[in-house]
Amino acid sequence: MSTASCDSAITYIDGDKGILRYRGYPIEQLADHSTYLETCYLLLNGELPNRAELTEFRGIIQEHTMLHEALRGFYKGFRHDAHPMAIMVGVVGALSAFYPDASDVHNPRVQEIAAHRLIAKMPTIAAWSYKYANGQPFIYPRNDLSYTENFLHMMFAVPTKDSRPDPLHVKALDLILILHADHEQNASTSTVRLTGSSEANPFAATSAGIASLWGPAHGGANEAVIRMLEEITESGNLKKYVDKAKDKNDRFRLMGFGHRIYKNFDPRAKIIRKMCHDLLQSLGDESTPLFDTALELEKIALEDEYFVERKLYPNVDYYSGIILRRLGIPLDMFTVIFALARTVGWISHWKEMMSDPTARIGRPRQLYTGSKERDYIPIEKR
Ligand code: SDX
Fold this sequence. Notes:
This protein is mostly helical. It is built from 17 helices and three strands.
């Protein structure tokens, strides 16, 4: 937890000061002025695009949003009730079979097109995971829609009627995608780097990152937050759960609270906390018990000595879970959306590592705590 696994110029975090910058730009300014697609260009290329560069990048991404038709059949191999993250791990890994040329991992052109394909195809793969799980027909991407609008269109459109995503929902989701785009050497990004360091295909490395993100201690937290809030609301006994979280003998933790690095408010949580409260206020009398529980739990945790002493603040997942719920995103799609957002971070780190001529295979060391040397014992003497 204290030894640097790599050097990187992509994202800077100061956990004590609550600072997060993508390529030197403060997350607060990107949240206010940028879009997710522009942020993808920044993370991938290191500079903000001018108008012509952004238009060209948008055009390139639009060229790659469709999937090989054979991949439609791949979905049909999953049980109808498969968790969409299981489908994502499988389908993204399967892209390696459709782009064998991607194994030429030191070729700059291969690195660039692999990055473009992943950024472009993740919304389609994610939306089709949802459609398959719900027995609805797949909706194809459209080039007349923006990146995030296109994703919501593929998620919620049906062939029987014309519809467009709510612009407010597009704006809220685009902000969530910006905030989740990268976070230096978190568990899933470190997984992508370690997997890619063996010169594995970038689609296989990204599939490994998705698998790591799925865990409730990491990207699965936004889904776990809502399940926790539902259980607390159902019980009507919030104090019981706060006490469980504080009990060393109880594995229960408050989902959406705490962070390995931020010992101050997660700057991303600060940004979406306001949007979350605005959205909840927009509910007015439609407010639901779950959202009331969320606000009450936040208040208690910010005042309780146990959390204050350990610097356990609400993290980005606490508020993003509530917002996604309010946008009508199904619970088992929450981590899929995190994976969609983080794809640009994963592939930017992969590209940075594979472009480094000094890069070598990862091989962490260990502290051996096992038996000293001893002789084999024949089974009749055991
Ligand atoms: C993400 O790494 C990244 O950057 C991740 C991420 C990203 O963008 O990639 O930011 C995304 O994964 C955010 C975190 C989402 N996970 C959750 O919300 C799950 C709940 N949180 C915890 O599981 C926990 O806080 C972690 C996993 C996030 C951090 O675990 P650590 O590093 O072990 O926590 P810590 O060392 O800071 O804990 C200090 C103390 C310990 O108690 P003591 O031993 O000191 O008595 O606080 C306790 C912990 O037991 N603690 C909690 C708690 N989190 C830590 N107690 C109750 N509830 C919690 N949520």
